[in-house]
Amino acid sequence: MVNNPLSFLSGFPLQLNSGILFGVFGFFIALFLVISAVLLYHWRTYGMKNTTIAFAETIYFLGSALFLFVALISLARL
């Protein structure tokens, strides 16, 4: 029988429910939006319409969308 590697968390004093986790997720979404707006402004203002910048924007937003989608699905299954 394999021991649960996360069994030490059973004594964790803070009870996390889905409401708290959705609140934390919302905070990180807001932080993500601010950082993304700053990056987008920087890329558009100083990037001089370079194709490398367009590629970086695409990778950033596709990767971010994937991670946010996986996080949202994980939270929804709680």
Give short descriptive properties of this protein.
78 residues, single chain, mainly alpha
Structural commentary:
With 78 residues, the protein is mostly helical. It has a domain at 30-78. It has helices at residues 18-46, 51-76. Helix 1 (18-46) runs antiparallel to helix 2 (51-76).
Count the DSSP helices: 2
Helical content band: over 70%
In quaternary terms, these chains amount to single chain
Proportion in β-strands: under 5%
Unreliable residue runs = none
Please state the CA-atom Rg, rounded to the nearest Å: 18 Å
Quantity of strands, as a count: 0
- Coarse structural class: mainly alpha
Order of helices and strands: HH
Write the layout of secondary structure elements.
Layout: H1 18-46, H2 51-76
Quick structural overview:
The protein has 78 residues and is mostly helical. It is built from 2 helices and no strands.
